[in-house]
Amino acid sequence: MQKVRRELPPAVRVWDPADASRAARCASDLKRPLLLLCPQESAAFGGIAWFRSLVERARQSGGAELLAGVETGQDGALAHEALQAGLDVVVFDGPSALSCRLQAIAQAQGACLLHEAPKALDLARASRPDEACRRFLAK
User: Fold this and answer.
1) pTM of model > 0.85
2) pLDDT per residue over 34-71, tens digit each?
3) Cα–Cα distance, 136 to 47 (Å, whole number)
4) What residue segments make up the domains of the chain, in order of their start?
């Protein structure tokens, strides 16, 4: 697993493979690193392995430097699973005692545990996703 930088790249919330490919293409075209962020609902439904696979396919097809992150809310099991799967960023806003344990795991693996999600473009809400992604990443 690659080490996560202190400052994270721009984040794009992706719900499906089309979103991930679109975001990776935009990042590659603009030569920008990117954090693909999986919403909690999507991670709980599709699973961490599904999202990890989605990011790997986007990495292979897009050529961009991509980090994989997931929003887990207060679901400690989902956060732990994401860390075990080697995701770069986990957003967990659960109890502090559990957060401390997850932080230790994240640190040992070179991952980043956040208590709130970074500002992210949600491609599912964009009327023109390609345009929105390019504008967002060009900032």
Assistant:
1) yes
2) 999 999 988 888 899 999 999 999 988 767 899 999 99
3) 27
4) 11-138
